[in-house]
Write a structure and sequence with these properties.
The protein is mainly alpha-helical. It is built from 7 helices and 4 strands, in the order H-H-E-H-E-H-E-H-H-E-H.
Length: 144
């Protein structure tokens, strides 16, 4: 049962973190993170967008993301389950099965870091496009 809870919660977190870098289900894309509308997303803008995202994912408003917030992922493809489990391990730092806002906001920024090619702490138009394309490929692989 605990493994099922971890997989379900991790799946939500995996897809939500991609939503900051790609077109999300709610229509908000990376441009949403560009708070000052300068066509670039700084690391701080990315982290601020992630903090806002926590409130949407904490569906019952109890201050944590856990199995009660996650939709049923029983039919999720195996690839998605594996990626979700890996993501879960990186975010739930104390291993209690619940993701706090602090854990969620301070989780590794792997996608941001990967696409910040010049390592200047911001994603420009070219880097944003590369991130969108990669996030799309990630979603496709998770469906397999």
């Amino acid at each position: 049962m605990l493994m099922k809870i971890k997989i379900a919660t991790a799946a939500v977190l995996l897809f939500s973190s991609c939503a900051v870098l790609a077109q999300g289900r709610d229509g908000a894309g990376i441009e949403h993170a560009d708070a000052n509308h300068d066509g670039k997303v700084t690391r701080q803008e990315y982290l601020d967008a992630r903090a806002e995202q926590f409130s949407r994912l904490d569906r019952n408003g109890d201050g944590v993301i856990d199995d009660t917030d996650a939709p049923d992922r029983a039919n999720q493809p195996q690839g998605g389950k594996r990626m979700a489990a890996a993501m879960r391990g990186r975010i739930d730092t104390n291993g209690d099965g619940k993701i706090t806002k602090e854990e969620f906001t301070n989780a590794p920024t792997m996608l941001f870091d990967r696409f910040d090619a010049d390592k200047n702490g911001e994603l420009d138009a070219k880097e944003l496009e590369a991130a969108r394309a990669a996030a799309g490929r990630l979603r496709e692989r998770s469906r397999q």
